[in-house]
């Protein structure tokens, strides 16, 4: 049986993360080693694929018991490949873990992959105490934008299999077709954060578009081809009357749409940044495959998240601020 601090040490997270997970799942304390293994895999599924703990925990526990599950499901196999690392942590926890005082100057010790000089930075300390797994960000700091978007596409496919959903999200195709139709836009939101190294799984594409008449007409034609319809959060299957043409964008409409390839949010103005022209000035061009993609800079993304001020953006903002520190410590990296 392992105490809270020993579980945190074994899984490489902080005690707050473990405590919240135990409360969410209603697990009895202290945890036995089998439960710690399943909890570690469920946390990885949550951080890597965005699967809620209450859904991920029974899935990984079943995969641990039934070999045929991991043989027939590539995602389960990938998650279970993390087991040896958890096993090493469990074996070492009783000897290596030492309870720490929580007085002034306390530092979280459960992220050995983050260099000590970085753990002292306020943004890194805040991210670790919040419970973020910064190893996912460190693992992609050397990757280029195309590789990061490719990894995001893989995560979408994996998440859809875990959720047993039909494939509906193809952000790469949406970006390619927007570019091929010569639509002028700047990528903002979660996809832009992914390009900069965020580990969060985003399921929609957010763009700031140019409201000029010709650009609006090209965008309208593309949306018609994608069978775009208004997205209603509480009624995702609702078919509301909606006519898409250049007049739709005449007054700079902000639209949340569902298309054949996934969710699309169209914004004429971004909080904290401004309109399309301002976004272009606060953006950078990233090479992706044989083309390129214009995205908000990391500083601009942070500014926009702060200006939006939504409670759901708090964790993302904490990650982006930590990511900015990690990237600054790797000069010349993409």
Overview of this protein structure:
A 5-stranded mixed beta sheet has the order 1-2-5-4-3. Strands 6-7 form a two-stranded antiparallel ribbon. A hairpin with a 3-residue loop joins strand 6 and strand 7. It has 17 helices and 9 strands. It has 2 domains: 98 residues; 184 residues, 2-Layer Sandwich (Beta Polymerase, domain 2), CATH 3.30.460. By secondary structure, it is of the alpha+beta class. Helix 1 crosses helix 7, helix 3 packs across helix 4 and helix 4 packs across helix 6.
Main attributes?
single chain; Beta Polymerase, domain 2; two-stranded antiparallel ribbon; alpha+beta; 2 domains; 334 residues; 17 helices
Give the secondary structure arrangement, pairings included.
Blueprint: H1 4-11, H2 15-25, H3 33-49, H4 53-65, H5 67-72, H6 74-80, H7 83-96, H8 116-119, H9 122-130, H10 135-138, H11 145-162, H12 171-180, E1 185-188, H13 189-196, E2 204-209, H14 213-225, E3 229-230, E4 255-259, E5 262-267, E6 269-270, E7 274-275, H15 276-281, E8 283-288, E9 291-296, H16 298-308, H17 314-328
Parallel strand pairs: 2-5
Antiparallel strand pairs: 1-2, 3-4, 4-5, 6-7, 8-9
